[in-house]
Amino acid sequence: MKNSVLHPAASRFYADHGWLQSAQTFSFHGNYDPQRIQFGALRVLNDDTVNGGKGFGRHPHDNMEIISIPLEGTLEHQDSLGNVAVIRPGEIQVMSAGTGVYHTEFNKDQDEPVTFLQIWLYPKKLNVTPRYDQMEYTSGNRHNRFQQILSPDPSDEGVWINQDAWFHLAELDKGFETDYALKKEGNGMYVFVIEGNVEVNGQLLSTRDGYGFWPESAVSVKAVEKSSLLVIEVPEKW
């Protein structure tokens, strides 16, 4: 497809810090490729596993929309805004860093690892007041459909962020076919396969593959086998 990028799972950067194993779709810290900086407003998509009782010490962020989606295990969050929270599979966390915030993220379980997706988006407006939110969503609501878990509208389904972006999760039965229609004209679509095999507009994707493109109309999605995926819709410019 014209203006598309395919990121096979095996092509991701990998960092092993002992307590942390991180597969990184885009350039991150010491891993750098000028061709893999971002996809539109999507800057970071890390697939992180943190050992029991370990985590990220206190560190700062500013002017970034930071989203965490646990896949296995429990993650404890603390920040300079006074928030202390635990997020689990079936929940999404968002932190609009804005003018600046410090936070820590730790594996709540001392014995079992936690695996989560760490996603950063560039914000629509700079230097907003920092904000934290999290939400639980019902897994049944994404069976053979796209379940919205994030949008730019506080009154819409899911958490909201300071960007014209939408996140959807889907769990599709083998052979199920559906379409995804963009929420905003001109946005791009980045598909990340959490597990399984799917065809997106004819492009075959497997577990942990990523595929970004700029569709002009509705996108066809077919599950080759039982699959779960995350769809990230973002603007090219903001």
TrEMBL record:
It holds the Pfam family Pirin_C_2. Keywords: Iron, Metal-binding. InterPro entries: Pirin (IPR012093), Pirin_N_dom (IPR003829), Quercetinase_C (IPR041602), RmlC-like_jellyroll (IPR014710), RmlC_Cupin_sf (IPR011051). Binds 1 Fe cation per subunit. Residues 149-234 form the Quercetin 2,3-dioxygenase C-terminal cupin domain. CDD domains: cupin_Yhhw_N. Belongs to the pirin family. This is Pirin N-terminal domain-containing protein. It comes from Dyadobacter soli.
